[in-house]
Amino acid sequence: MAQDPHPERLEKMREKLVNELWAPDRDTVLFVGNMEQRPTSFLVLGVFWPPHQSLQQSLFEAPSA
After folding, report:
1. For 31-54, what is each residue's pLDDT tens digit?
2. Which of 58, 62, 63 minimizes the C-alpha distance to 27?
3. What are residue 43's phi and psi, to 5 degrees?
4. Is the backbone of residue 4 left (phi > 0), alpha (psi -120 to 50) or beta?
5. Dist CA 26 CA 5 (whole Å)
6. Is residue 31 within 8 Å of residue 48, measured between CB atoms?
7. What is the pTM of this model?
8. What's the rounded Cα separation, in Å, for the pair 15 and 17?
9. Exposed, middle or buried by CB within 10 Å (0-12, 13-18, 19+), for 49?
């Protein structure tokens, strides 16, 4: 595998993923898909990282006005 001529880019991407997308205060969801030619390989098509909300709270408590 070729070396990245700009390793700082990889480090910035890693920081974003670890510190923001997969932070403990987020409920991260990956949208994945595959291609007909490679049905067992998947690609990440999108990432959704809303703030964490307790499932118990959202299902059983009345919404606040």
Report:
1. 999 999 999 999 999 999 999 877
2. 58
3. -115, 145
4. beta
5. 32
6. yes
7. 0.57
8. 5
9. middle
